[in-house]
Fold this sequence. Notes:
The chain has 166 residues and is mainly alpha-helical.
Amino acid sequence: MNLQFPDTVYPGAESANPYTIAGSVSNQTSPPKYPSPWGSGQGEWTAAYSKARAFVSQLTLEEKVNLTTGTGWELDRCVGQTGSIPRLAFRALCLQDSPVGVRDTDFNSVFPAGVNMAATWDRGLAYARGQAMGYEHKGKGVDVQLGPVAGPLGRAPEGGRNWEGT
């Protein structure tokens, strides 16, 4: 039994890199930093950051909490919904699950899972899939698509929901 890596799925595949070892021991987490640092908004993001800072500076603490914690699971037309801020004409945002299509709706497509898309190694096809999913979500009134996952396959190949990502 491997005492340094007791939960290793594939014995003998451990890294000798000290940073990888330290990360696996600490479960790849970073310590929190409070308060969170402000982003600088460089390049074409400069105007968006300025606009966001100006908006957030007008919010009360209650409005910030309302906006960031949401209103619950499937209590409205979406899987998740942020609170609105009527005083500033900011409507609630619709967050919808979507690893392969718009959840809990009718007359929509079901797209290939991300793992199937990744197996094609076709970036153009992957882009077209993402664009089509975005159009369908927008057409259903979704503001934030909670998927598909973008990034590595996952730390454990046996991960139950790795198929959702690419």
